[in-house]
Amino acid sequence: MNWIKKKFNMLSKGVLFLVLLVMLACNGSKKQDQEASLPFYDEATFTPHWLEAGSDSLAQFHRISPFRLINQEGDTITERSVAGKIYVTDFFFTSCPGICPKMTTNMALLQDAFWEDDGVLLLSHSVTPEHDSVPVLQDYALARGVDARKWHLLTGDREQIYKLGRQDYFVEEDLGLQKDPEEFLHTENFVLIDPQRHIRGIYNGLNKASIAQLITDIHTLRMEQ
Questions:
Q1: What is the pLDDT of residues 47-81, one digit of tens each?
Q2: Is 26 a known ligand-binding residue?
C-alpha cells in the first residue's frame, strides 16, 4: 500500500508542476502581448485600459474631438488631415523662454526619426494664438527647421485649443482640478494618438529617455496597422 501511496503523491506533484508551468506560460504570453501593444487612455489620470485594437469597446471609447485650426502655411488642418495617421501633439507658444525651446528640440528629433514615414505626423498647438499668427509661426518654423509636410504648428480659436488640451488630450498634470477657461495652459507633455484618434501614451517632452520610449511606442503602433 505504501508504494501505491508514494506513486499517487508523485503523480499529484507531477500534475501540480504541469499546472504551474501552464499558468506561467499563460502569464508570460499575456505579458508579452501587453509589451507588444499599447494601452488606451480615456481620462486625466491616464489609467491604462488594455483593449484589442479592433475591440467593440472602442466604439464608445474616448477619442479626440473634431477640430479646425490653421498651420504655419496658412492651411486649414482638421481631424481629416490626420485620418488614418499616427500623430504626436503638444502645446507651446513662440515667445516662451522656458520649456518650449527644449520641447521643440525634442519634437524635432521625432521629425527626423519619422521623416520618411508618411503615416506619422506632429501637431504643436499655440496656447497664445492671439500672438502666434501665421506669419509668426512661419518665422518660428523657419528658425527651427520645422517642415509643414511633417509638423504642423497650429493657431486658431483660443477656446478650441484650450478645450482640446484640457478635455481631449488631458495634457495638464493638475489632475482633477477645475481650471478657469482663462487660466493659462502650460505643459511639457507630449501625447501619442493612434489613427482612430485614441490616446495611446503620454510622455515628458523635456526628457530624452521619454522621447526614446515615444519613438519605440510609435513603431509599436505601426505594427498594429
A1: 999 998 778 889 999 999 999 999 999 999 999 99
A2: no
